[in-house]
Amino acid sequence: MRIVTSLVLLFSTAPVFASQYPIQEFEVAQIERIVVRGFRGDVNLTYNDQGKLKVQAVQLEGFKGDATGASSNWNFRISETGKVIRIEVSPPGSKGEFFSIFNRNIERIPKFNINLSVPNRPVEIFWREGQIVAQGLKSKLSVSNKNGLISAKDFEAPLSIETRNGEVRVKNLIGAVDIESYKGSIFLEDVQGPVSILNFAGKSLVNKSKGRLVARSHLGAFVVQEVKGDIEFDTIRGPVKLINVEGDVNGKTQEGSVVVRVTKKPRVRVNGGNGPVVIEFPKGTGFWGNIGTEKGALSTLPGLKVESYGALRVASGSVSGRNSGRIFVRAKKGSVRLKPY
User: How many CB atoms lie within 10 A of CB 27?
Assistant: First the structure.
């Protein structure tokens, strides 16, 4: 492993301080990816077409408090291993010393703020806490972060994000997006490409996008607006609201409410549970319908015949009109409603 540069930065119980470092440039002709690892602070990325990696600045903030039992050195290092450039913040001393600091108070871990100007090379970031902002990249970005804002804007590349409680904001991106979150907030706008979101308990909003969308959650709510592309959703209790969508809709939920409003002919299949299901479509739209519920209210339209099959009541048939589509809904305790607008 060739060490490009290595900085050992000192901190103590003295007042907080910062160190600014001059720009560092690295040729990347033989490099296949760039990896960034650290704990606290901000990482900012911008694109350059000069074929060089530029590390513009590194800032360290020392901690306030008792340093008893902790080593005094934190390392910032840039190294080249094979075809990978690694930018790493490493803790002092042994793992035991590090976890002694970490378990007492994460605020005792110093912050490193890193600004990168990156060429057309994939970037992987493994961070714990802080803001990660990327703009204008043209190669894949992968981010793993526990807390803090993750912002990606004006991309022409795939994006992959894993976060626990962080806020994710993506705008104006051409490429595939894959996001996994436990309880974070997710906001996507103007994405052209397939999107996959797994958000266990946080809220997700997708607006004005084109491409297939797969949305999964347990408690998390999904709101989708003005999306062109097929949509698949799977929730346990999380509500789903799809407004002004164009494409096939196929979803299921156990407890969550579902609202689907299509702009053209409906192509909708929903397996609901105990929450209400509402399907909205333009007035005068024709479709073949088959909607049913076991214990909920059933709101039908002329052309649909209601029949009972044990506990299940089903309304089925054809509704005349333009742009013939199809609607299939099943529910248990939840009501089912067809609503022209």
Answer: 12
Query: Residue 199 CB: number of other CB atoms within 10 A?
Result: 27
Which pair of tokens denotes residue 236? 């346990």
Specify the length of the chain in residues.
341
Residue the block writes with tokens 């807390």: 147
pTM as predicted: 0.89
Task: Write 213-222 long-range contacts (CB < 8 A, 24+).
Answer: 215/240, 220/183, 222/197
Looking up tokens 């399907």 gives 279
List the beta bridge partners of residue 117: 46, 54
* Type of residue at 181: S
Spatial distance between the Cα atoms of 305 and 310, rounded to a whole number of angstroms? 16
Neighbours of 309 (CB within 10 A): 9
Does pLDDT of 50 surpass 70? yes
CB of 58 closer than 8 Å to CB of 110: no
Phi, psi dihedrals of residue 227, rounded to the nearest 5°: -115, 130
Note whether 157 and 176 are within 8 A (CB).
no
How far is 139 from 51, CA to CA, in rounded Å? Answer: 13
What distance in Å separates the CA atoms of residue 302 and residue 202, rounded to the nearest whole number?
Answer: 40
Percentage helix, strand, coil for the chain under 3-state DSSP, each rounded to 5:
5, 60, 35
Rg (CA), the chain: 26
pLDDT in tens, 170-228: 999 999 999 999 999 999 999 999 999 999 999 999 999 999 999 999 999 999 999 99
With CA atoms as reference, report the closest residue to 140 among 29, 26, 50, 33.
Answer: 33
Q: What is the DSSP string of 204-229?
A: EEEEEEES-EEEEESS--EEEEEEES
